Amino acid sequence: MKNYIKVDEWKIIEEGFDAHHHQVSESIFSLGNGRMGQRANFEEAYSGETLPGNYVAGVYYPDKTRVGWWKNGYPEYFAKVLNAANWTIIDIVLDGEQLDLAKCNVTSFRRELNMKEGYLKRTFTAKTASGKEVSVEACRFCSMVDDETAAIHYAITPLNFSGTITITPAIDGDVVNKDSNYDEKFWDELGKANQPGGGYIVMRTKKTGFEVATGMKFSISQNGETIQPKTETISKEKYIASKIELQAQQGQSISIIKYIANLSSQNHKPEALVASLTATLDRISLKGFDTMLAEQAAAWAEKWKHNDIIIEGDESAQQAIRFNIFQLNQTYTGEDDRLNIGPKGFTGEKYGGSTYWDTEAYCVPFYLATAPQKVTRNLLLYRYKQLGKAIENAALLGFKNGAALYPMVTMDGTECHNEWEITFEEIHRNGAIAYAIFNYVRYTADEAYLADYGFEVLIAIARFWSQRVSWSQDKQQYVMLGVTGPNEYENNVNNNWYTSMLAVWCMKYTMEVAGKVKIANKAKYDALAARIGLDEATEFSRFGHIVENMYLGHDEKQGIFLQQDGYLDKEQILVKDLPATDRPLNQKWSWDRILRSCYIKQADVLQGIYFFEDDYDIDTIRRNFDYYEPRTVHESSLSPCVHAILAAKLGDEARAYEFYLRTARLDLDDYNNDTEDGCHITSMAGTWMAVVEGFGGMRVRDGKLLFQPFIPEKWASFSFHIGFRGALLNIKVSKEGVQIKNLSDVATTVFVYGKDQLVKANDELLVEA
Ligand code: BGC
């Protein structure tokens, strides 16, 4: 755990340079705009430990799978989002001596991520080995308005000398992925051009053939005046640069504005890439840095209007929640249904930038409430478009008749996770995808989605479940053998309650949706049924039989759902009784020991109870919570938020707050010592859930928003924005009660503390606690 980030409501601030923090900061101060993003690497050269990272959403490479023992059905490759051309570089040389903070005496240093306006700023003064002292101010951003563009303003002032300063802005396409399986380089150069004032390179990915053109255009000024300096262009393989030598006067600043465009063949015809790139660079350089930055601030202001959370009385919590919301918005904007949310977003390489069940289980609630409806719809469409591959994936494993198994990890719909316990067994992800459809329709009332897309996905998933269960002669019930639940600290278990319960629910829900779609649009239903060869009588009767006769483990004595067969045989020593030195288990214990233990990585039974809370009475929820939580080590960042929400539901405000604290500053304080790999983007949505669904008690019930809030003791008030069926609400919870402001022209009725409250358009009301 670290504690070097300064607390501020709207900014993330690092003061003083400590090379040990640098890679953590490179993650925390990352920038993105949904289309591209980058780690907060320095512009000038840095010879210390660094993880350069520049990513273009959706541009990936199928890296051949590497496993010890090949098993049939393994995916051929692990897709990974590619480290792409580095466009940040502005190399600085002072009278022949390179400016490199790893080799300087850094006398002052401040890095600041301005979350309100969406930019990264860095200022420092440093003395080189030979005693030359400079001050630097650098500011950059990835434009939210024009998501193929970015800009950097870099100003340097010699403080104690006059001499030659050489500035070399560059684009380097010769980059590698740290996680490359065979130390391969994934890009080939396709072309480049370089002239004084700017240039570009076009790179093509091996195998997948994505083309990405990255270009720069720059202007230089000295002492406030734009100049046209002599420039030496440098072109090497996969690299372009412009070397500019300037005579600098002590105390007078030199600055460069570097405009960047990053275009990919996903959005442009390959033959038009260069022309579009040039036009984009011309457009933004004409607009100018200041205008771009002003537009950036306005775009962020608009975002914050819809999704800010304001916490009064706790600045550190305020900073943390904004950081989570900020990073989520930088990662995914919902403009493009081919894109998704990697667990690390654009902040690192871990998890390959691929899509996990995290999206459906954790991110969907955030985007549903804080972004236009189409954003979540696009997340669902992403999976709809990959249905064919999910069916192929299931067929590869021996399933038939259009059964679909969505991948645990994917970029384009193909499974690319290579641990059999996860690829073959962590099948509960299929359930989360069905649940997201249910959640979306419950929230938005967009029933048409079911007829157009949702039902087709549901039927394929239900078909999978109906084939994945088997009939136990012994039990005279259906069972689900050989699975891994969300608790990845146990593999190949039988009758994981969460997975089986979700399977039953999917089949039930699919039949219910079939009924709805048939009534709403019989012609569409018939056409789809014919296309997918639905034999309703036979298939639905099997679904129904499974629903009625599925084995769902339950322990009568303790009144709990059984996580899986045999769980109670394990030695039951609670987490609190483990020596602190044994934790985290995944770093301290052998895998064998973990598998045999009772310790649960993340919400499993409780994940199911969270999804279907209305199906269980409060005593059942309490018994399961009281049993499973003390056995949970929360070694996935996705875990605490579910526990925070359930603790809040159970009225345990102190524990709800305690769980919330474990997620809120996870990356800012490098809680798990792993932020240098990237930020935990998908679990940031969980932090939002802990505030809104936990403390705010927000639910959707019977087509209405329900709030049952409480306020953490330390806080004076908290408020959040929620979009719901055309209405935009600001909900402020304080000791007095709940104030609801309707910021839209759509009246809505909300259910607060057990009573309906009509909130008229552009009106507000206070419901006393
Ligand atoms: C969790 C999974 C999650 C993955 C990516 C793992 O540690 O156990 O549930 O999908 O991380 O976030």
TrEMBL record:
GO terms for biological process: carbohydrate metabolic process. Keywords: Hydrolase. Residues 13-265 form the Glycoside hydrolase family 65 N-terminal domain. The active site is at 488 (proton donor). The keyword Hydrolase applies. The keyword Hydrolase applies. Signal peptide: none annotated. Pfam families: Glyco_hydro_65C, Glyco_hydro_65m, Glyco_hydro_65N. Residues 322-689 form the Glycoside hydrolase family 65 central catalytic domain. Substrate binds at residues 357-358, 601-602. One of its GO terms (molecular function) is carbohydrate binding. InterPro entries: 6-hairpin_glycosidase_sf (IPR008928), 6hp_glycosidase-like_sf (IPR012341), Gal_mutarotase_sf_dom (IPR011013), GH65_N (IPR037018), Glyco_hydro_65_C (IPR005194), Glyco_hydro_65_M (IPR005195), Glyco_hydro_65_N (IPR005196), Malt_Pase/Glycosyl_Hdrlase (IPR017045). Coiled coil: none annotated. Belongs to the glycosyl hydrolase 65 family. This is Glycoside hydrolase family 65 protein. It comes from Mucilaginibacter ginsenosidivorax. The lineage of its organism: Bacteria, Pseudomonadati, Bacteroidota, Sphingobacteriia, Sphingobacteriales.
